[in-house]
Predict the structure.
Amino acid sequence: MRHITGVLWLPRATMAEIVRHPAFVTTWIVVVSVVAVCGGALLSTRVGRQALIDERVRVVEALGGRVDDAAYAALQADPPTLVYLTSGGRLLLTPPVTLLVALGLVVLAASSGARVRYIVALAIAVHATVVLAVQQVVATPLHYLRESLTSPTNIAGLLPMLEEGSWPARLLGSVDVFGLWWMWVLAVGLAAATGTPARRYFWKLLVVYVGIAAIVATVFAVLGGSV
């Protein structure tokens, strides 16, 4: 628990200790448990199950598709639970993505001439997801109140002047405040492992993050007929 709270309040000192002693199993169990409890609590409600259906319909229509009455009835009969994990930034919390992020950290360190063992990179990646778990604790009651699975902390949601469905709105809708925090913690961890300033890694991670968001926004805009 000390490392979990430390990531939030004292990330530099905590990551330095994690790099020296790369243990992560307990933290990973806590993070996955928090996500499971948040998801279970929300999806056990009528509002949560309807939000699953609405999110699936939103994505299909945004990609230029259409959900007819028969398809909608099928969704009501069997709400697509997987939609929960692929919406609101929760995909970043899944174990396969965490494993891939750790591999990416190894590659990123190597690009600057440093060598980071995969076990160290995985410990950094797992502890950084503590930030994303906090996001779920904050977002879950807001999902219920807003009756939506989209992240309430994405940048587009904080800028209501953006035209809904526009490319800028789609782009900033894929960039989350907690996602930026998560990347900073990853950068701090890499800095502790390599002795390189965290800001150098943060900007590289930001380019990748925003680049992926731009690709997603463009795909939705093109298929949805917004461009």
Remarks:
- The first helix runs from residue 2 to 9.
- Residues 2-224 form one domain.
- The chain is about 75% helix and 0% strand.
